[in-house]
Write a structure and sequence with these properties.
- This protein has 11 helices and 6 strands.
- A 6-stranded mixed β-sheet has the order 1-3-2-4-6-5, sandwiched between helices.
- The longest helix has 20 residues.
- The chain is globular and about 50 Å long.
- Bound molecules: uracil.
- Uracil (URA) binds next to loops.
Length: 253
Amino acid sequence: MLKAMNTEEVRRRQYLDALGITCWESRQYPVLAAPDVMTANPDLTGDIPESSTQPFQSKKPDETADALGLWRELESAVRTCTKCSLHVTRTQTVFGVGDRQAQWMFIGEAPGADEDRQGEPFVGRAGQLLNAILFALGLKREDVYIANVLKCRPPGNRDPQPEEVAQCEPYLLRQIELIKPRLIVALGRHAAHSLLKTEVALGKLRGQQHSYHGTPLFVTYHPAYLLRNPADKRKVWNDLCHARTVLQRMETA
Ligand code: URA
């Protein structure tokens, strides 16, 4: 017999049905048997509930004054950072957003024009697609933490330079230290290469569990890449189902 579902769950199922995603049904989250999905709607921009698309900065009731102080210190260090030349061209720094006690942490490359303007990661078209991917996974933007390797926009969206990554990475490491996510998802080649210190092709890094300073890390395609290559949404679905399976195993271990 079907369990009673709340409205959110019904909408999620309708949304996934529209995309042809059925692996939620048994809650088995098959890793390689993911259906031919995320191609039904190339933009994956279905009717996502408002709560999944709104920016959110969590204030956990159980966050201690000490933890809040540490976050404020870090935010202030990032906001006033002049360690590399990107501070000259930025409108503002883009710190990170979401649940500071999240299990999932998503890490992109660097802010783009929209993020530089709004001061929040993944708010442009790629961000909308990321929200939709989270929704398909049964997660909301406010359930996870989203950040970038670089906190400032490289002019013209050029690739991050190694010295910029070297200067900025300690901020990301500190975020990870404070959040203590159960797993990290590196979005795209640049994030994966910066975090894993490798030049191995993204296609080869996918499908494996890596480690970033002791936190399990999975690699998948960047949402901006998916906007150009919608057929690869299925691979992202596989990657994230894999990550979710690992997380579930950690929880039951
Ligand atoms: N691309 C990224 O890697 N990060 C953002 O915040 C936006 C686009």
